[in-house]
Amino acid sequence: MNRTESSSPLDPEEEMKKDAVKYFGFQPKRDSASDARNALLVVAALVATVTFDKGTDVPGNIRNGTARIIFIIANSIAFSASMSIVEYLTTGFPFKTEIYISLSSVCFAYGSGVSNHIEGVREYVLLFISLLLPFFASKVSRVKAWLH
């Protein structure tokens, strides 16, 4: 019986070479929900860290004009989405109140820092919408899941 006719799975190195995305992606039979949650928390925390830094200190080459507005909106959506993921994944954790206060405080600090780079009412409205968009999207998806 040759290797191709064998019913045994490929060894990990061969499987990785065959399809690295599938190999490193989440696999329910291999990965636990806890492992997935931990990985998502790390990614969300990294995204929140980077977007917080760049949101409160906009890069010098985009300080004016439309590019600045687009940057602030995109960065704010990414920040808010990552904070929403952290909030969602920490549901049921001990110290939930403290976690929620911390997340809310970081969001407030982000909004305060970004407001230094905003001019005019229209930009404040866009910032407000971009910060709330991921939270509303997660609530809508939860309601849709509940209805089905």
Question: What would your notes on this structure say?
Answer:
By secondary structure, the protein is an all-alpha fold. It has one domain. It has helices spanning 12-18, 20-24, 33-56, 65-89, 96-115, 121-147. The protein is globular and about 60 Å long. The N and C termini lie far apart (49 Å).
**Main β sheet profile:** none
Choose one word for the global shape. globular
Q: Please trace the helix and strand order, writing H or E for each element.
A: HHHHHH
Low-pLDDT windows of residues: 3-8
Number of H/I helices: 6
The radius of gyration over CA amounts to: 21 Å
How many discrete structural domains? 1
Total beta strand runs: 0
Distance between the termini: 49 Å
Portion in helices: over 70%
User: If you average the pLDDT, what whole number results?
Assistant: 79
How much beta, percentage-wise? under 5%
| Protein structure class | mainly alpha
Protein name: PGG domain-containing protein
GO cellular component, one term: plasma membrane
Membrane topology: Multi-pass membrane protein
Domain PGG: 34-93
Topology, element by element:
Blueprint (H helix, E strand, L loop, with lengths): L11 H7 L1 H5 L8 H24 L8 H25 L6 H20 L5 H27 L1
Helix pairs in contact: 3-4, 4-5, 4-6
Membrane topology: Multi-pass membrane protein
Pfam family, one: PGG
Keywords: ANK repeat, Membrane, Repeat, Transmembrane, Transmembrane helix
